[in-house]
Specification:
Elements (H helix, E strand, L loop, with lengths): L6 H13 L10 H13 L21 E3 L5 E7 L5 E2 L12 E7 L2 E2 L14 E7 L2 E2 L13 E3 L4 E4 L13 E3 L4 E4 L12 E4 L4 E5 L9 E5 L4 E4 L13 E3 L4 E2 L15 E3 L6 E2 L13 E3 L4 E5 L19 E3 L7
Parallel strand pairs: 2-4, 3-5, 4-6, 6-8, 7-9, 8-10, 9-11, 10-12, 11-13, 12-14, 13-15, 14-16, 15-17, 16-18, 18-20, 19-21, 21-22
Antiparallel strand pairs: 1-2
The protein binds 2-acetamido-2-deoxy-beta-D-glucopyranose (5 copies).
Length: 330
């Protein structure tokens, strides 16, 4: 499922562009400038960096944001085909809060340890690139990191358990990679809200029951090999808006589930081994806009009332013995 950017993402950009005021025009810290020129030369002075010239102030260069004192706080490279790897020199921008490499198909290599030096980094987006290798455990040393987006790359290996120690992390998106292995037992321990998107990987095993106490706004585990119980991701009173467990091997009794009634918008459970029946309590979910339980082992009458009658038969097809509108009468 694609969806709107997360709240933290939006807040970040608000913060970002409001601090990118003319106050920094004409400014440039000389150490930051030196690091940026190293980055330019690591990319063989590609045309993308044409505005990065030694005789101009680095806060005026394209793709750079500075604070009022002329320190570089944002570097965002996107939408180009220059080749290269993520340069170690990014680690020499100590005030950096936001780092983006997006839609760079010829960006290869691994995520360099130099990134762990960025003590102020809050936002890291490396997406739609050919970056490969592991999701590095050293990312957990970034104490300010709130938003981590490594989606649409060629990353492999397991999700490092150390990520559970990153104290500020609330949003993780590593969808569309080649991750394998289990979920780390503890993630988002102290987050007041959490976003987890891991769709289209080869992850497996059971979801740790400790995830039952995480305040997920979004959890997307679709198109992996997860199995076992996931009922604890649901629950009355939770803030969840989207729960997508589709195309896995989850096997649990849906009868036992109580749906978060306040903010829930999307529930996608299609292609699993879920049994039992659809609880009547689903009719209390006032905002439900997407509900798909097709290709499971459900049985019994589809609850009437609430919003379930908005969904067509394709949302209920291929179960053991579900019946009632929009399927044939019981
Ligand atoms: C991560 O990046 C991808 C690709 O740009 C985007 O579609 C997705 O919404 C982002 N995830 C989050 C949680 O913001
Ligand atoms: C860049 O400019 C500085 C002075 O502003 C000068 O010392 C340095 O040699 C220049 N570097 C290059 C590569 O031209
Ligand atoms: C992704 O990684 C695999 C090895 O894991 C490699 O064979 C493949 O060429 C890589 N693809 C891209 C687009 O980098
Ligand atoms: C979570 O909070 C507890 C108590 O406030 C604290 O002891 C612990 O170190 C925190 N854990 C993380 C990962 O920040
Ligand atoms: C529900 O899932 C089934 C199986 O993947 C799919 O054919 C159907 O189009 C889905 N319905 C909606 C509304 O997405």
């Amino acid at each position: 499922m694609t969806s709107a950017p997360t709240l933290s993402f939006l807040l970040f950009f608000f913060f970002f562009f409001s601090s990118c005021s003319p106050a920094s025009a004409g400014l440039c810290n000389k150490y930051d400038k030196k690091a940026l020129l190293k980055i330019k030369s690591a990319f063989n002075n590609a045309y993308h960096f044409a505005s990065w010239t030694n005789d101009s102030a680095c806060c005026d260069w394209y793709n750079i944001d500075c604070d009022a004192r002329g320190r570089v706080i944002g570097l965002s490279l996107f939408q180009d085909d220059f080749p290269g790897t993520i340069p170690d020199a990014v680690g020499d921008l100590p005030f950096l809060q936001s780092l983006t490499f997006h839609h760079l198909p010829n960006l290869v290599g691994t995520i360099p340890p130099a990134i762990a030096r960025l003590a102020n980094l809050r936002f890291l987006d490396i997406s739609w690139t050919s970056v490969s290798g592991p999701v590095p455990a050293f990312l957990a040393r970034l104490r300010a990191l709130d938003y981590l987006n490594l989606s649409f790359n060629n990353l492999s290996g397991t999700i490092p358990a150390a990520l559970g120690d990153a104290p500020s992390l609330t949003s993780i998106d590593i969808s569309r990679n080649k991750l394998t292995g289990p979920l780390p037992p503890a993630l988002f321990r102290n987050a007041s809200e959490a976003y987890l998107r891991l769709s289209h990987n080869g992850l497996s095993g059971e979801v740790p029951p400790s995830y039952g106490s995480v305040r997920f706004i979004q959890v997307d585990l679709s198109r992996n090999q997860f199995e076992g119980d996931a009922t604890f991701l649901f629950g009355r009173g939770k803030p969840a808006q989207q729960i997508d467990l589709s195309r896995n091997k989850f096997e649990f009794d849906l009868t036992r589930v109580e749906f978060p009634e306040a903010d829930l918008i999307l529930v996608d459970l299609n292609h699993n081994k879920i049994y039992g029946n659809i609880p009547q309590q689903i009719s209390e979910v006032g905002n439900l806009q997407f509900f798909n339980v097709s290709y499971n082992r459900l049985c019994g009458k589809i609850p009437a009332g609430g919003r379930l009658n908005r969904f067509d038969e394709y949302c209920f097809l291929h179960n053991k013995c579900l019946c009632g509108a929009p399927l044939p009468a019981c």
